Amino acid sequence: MATQQALLDSIKEQTILSEISALSGWDALTGMPKDAGHFRADVDAYLAEKTFQVATGPQRQQLLEALSADKSALDDFGQLVLAKAQKDFDVTGKIPEKDYIDFQRTLSEAQDYWAQAREANDYTIFQPYVEKIIAYLKQFIPLWQTDEATPYDVLLNQYEPGLSVAKLDAVFDELKTGIMALRHRLETLGTEPDGTFLSRQVSKDKQREYALAASQRLGYDMNKGRLDDTIHPFMEALNRDDARITTRWDEHNFQMAVLGIFHEAGHGLFEQNVASKYDAVRAVMPISMSIHESQSLFNEVMVGRSKAFWQAEYPKMQAVFAPTFDDISFETFYNGWIKTEATLIRTEADPLTYPLHIIIRYEIEKAIFNDNVPVAELPQLWRDKYQEYLGLTVPDDLTGILQDIHWAGGSFGYFPSYALGHLYAAQFMATMQKTLDFEQIYASGDYTPIFEWRKQHIWQHGGAVDPGDILMAATGEGLNPQYWLTVMNDLYATAYQLPK
Amino acid sequence: MATQQALLDSIKEQTILSEISALSGWDALTGMPKDAGHFRADVDAYLAEKTFQVATGPQRQQLLEALSADKSALDDFGQLVLAKAQKDFDVTGKIPEKDYIDFQRTLSEAQDYWAQAREANDYTIFQPYVEKIIAYLKQFIPLWQTDEATPYDVLLNQYEPGLSVAKLDAVFDELKTGIMALRHRLETLGTEPDGTFLSRQVSKDKQREYALAASQRLGYDMNKGRLDDTIHPFMEALNRDDARITTRWDEHNFQMAVLGIFHEAGHGLFEQNVASKYDAVRAVMPISMSIHESQSLFNEVMVGRSKAFWQAEYPKMQAVFAPTFDDISFETFYNGWIKTEATLIRTEADPLTYPLHIIIRYEIEKAIFNDNVPVAELPQLWRDKYQEYLGLTVPDDLTGILQDIHWAGGSFGYFPSYALGHLYAAQFMATMQKTLDFEQIYASGDYTPIFEWRKQHIWQHGGAVDPGDILMAATGEGLNPQYWLTVMNDLYATAYQLPK
After folding, report:
1. Which of A187, A378, B3, B219 has the least CB density, counted as fewest CB within 10 Å?
2. Which GO MF terms are attached to this record (chains A, B) (predicted)?
């Protein structure tokens, strides 16, 4: 019987399977014994197969068809869930099963060859797999396409509902111009801060103590989370009451773990505060990447680079790290803390240069799918753009086109979410400043008003509301990159003592 | 089609499900966020249901029936697997599904009421659930019974194939007499060692460093394992390449974690060294408890209480803990290390008194199932036996009959495995001493010969060979408690300076 309950039961099974996969994934990256990978591959393949069956099998298909044809059995919640489940189904269900399986196998191989190519520092080893993946995606795009304008629009929409090349072209153009202008002013008119104190030794235990305490002041709940060590930090949410964060440590670069933990705790905050009514349907209502990233970046940049925040927090950090920074004044600390410098590696970039890394990738992906640029030409394209936008000469593939795993995973159209996250964070911040006095809140030590605003306007909705709608409802405006450019101009004008 | 491959595929699915359950169980006891229990309960219920379907559902039933009727499709391995799968099926498959589900629910409730009874220190809260569980088991026993002599024999056989009340009565009688005689000699003729140094402070990090290094010298492979903190220590093996151990710490009782880690690493050694041919059929070939315990206890007692071992290891431990024990001579250390004292709590017992705790539980369980002793009389029975065998007055239920969770879990017939583990360990040791020079091996620092013997004679067989057969093949003899009594007499005669 095609009832709402039958749909919810089916989705609950999918949610439980995704929860198990999340546990397995977290474990594999935080301390699973080194030799156990081959056994774990069997477990993960089993889970993927079961999930595929539940999410796209005949039972789900019949439910979707029957309930779409006659919605009288569904209340509002049921209709929302049906729409989300249909969307979830379309991504894989519209592809012939054989092609889907071949594609997954190609992705799995591609990741191995990406790793090999990195080891050999030679893009040509990876190139045939990029070509294969792109060929598959070009074959799938017409199956996925509904009313999007260009092939690349179809991919963008899978990660960010409602996003288009037309919108991004305009936004990224504004952003690129603004960033390059500010960087030019800093170079020609600014005084570069001294950041040497940032490499003073701070033990892992002390870094952990401070960063977790501050993250908890921002609302991250350790009764619904934990912090583990890993190589490439991430947050993994099994459910609302189990949103685990991870970090890496460098005793001579405490900024990395402190901001990294703020960042992941921002993701964790989101997951911990999704409304409980979505518990059993999480699997078909993933939170969109851009809005998720807006919350990690809110923690990392809007809070973690804010002068008012550090005015309150620096003495607390000094006390935990004492006596290491007793001789560093607040001004010296803060200016060094937000020092900006172009890097070849995206994940090491500071907030000001980060969007340029994304714009480069966006322009290359657009060229691949909309202009059919050959894959062999991508390394040169990459080098040219890094020279032009960041003024950096890319010396090799490892620090160039081989740095990200995303393409090996088939994730074309994903990178823009990272930049949107920055822009959303700043736009939320600008709205919050109309009703919240951040200086007073930070000085009080009780950050609850910030927590409550974010929970009410953003987190509680989980993946139920599209990011563009959340932004509009919360800020009364569509995406506007000027908020972010204003934040950046303010931050760096102070730290680099630009003339007013 | 009822082929060998179809059977193996079905069992592989069961094995993967059990691997996932093991990961979930390990995670829940080592650091899952405090608030996540209710979500995890859903996951575990789902896994239990899937496992039940795979292990006892129509497909498995048809395979078992068809392959049992015509074994021509099976090679030797297939026949072994069929027999094990049939045995696995019989434990649950012979019970009507409704009764099985009701029983599981009763067990789940019983564990809550056991915890409540412990909190109130009042057995009568738990008593109705013990009665229910016993009633269920008495109802199931005739369904399980094949040729066992008494009802309690049926339960014993589920944990230890081939075990009987007749055998255990004889063995435990010999054991009880021997232990009580030795304890009497120690009390009247011995000099009690000074163990005060055992409470000197040793940091958790140093305890961990030493205990893991020694465990690795004994062969525990950290590339196939890890060590985590927990409340009630255990080893959890997801598979041969992922056998995780856990411990608890007390900075003023380093002996607890050192011997605890040796113990769990002994379990881990077993799992890490099962032959790879059993990888996919683990779920129907669990290693029997007694033989498993013999290997943890071999590490903890036969190695971890041995004078020759500590002659080689004490300087290594002193170096890691330096300077804390620089003033403690080897003789003082060793005698204090094996000091014996009766305790009310089984899990805190030393090797000499431990079997008496088991014998008490054995006698009570036998009285319940074979003599129908009323459940209301058990606390008095418990108190009488602790007085008689250990000379201890039990002050309350918490330190008496409510101390173990086993009955709340329906595990009647399980306790004897612990005592058998002690006896097996000593019997293996006696055989090994015929060909291995332990003093020379320990002095050399290379413990490989001990590792190799255990792997060849015990570990590689996993759960494929019954414990009695492993014992017979390895030692050329059936179970003989005199080996264990000899070890104990030797250990304590030295430490307590008994007259020769």
Report:
1. A187
2. metal ion binding; metallocarboxypeptidase activity
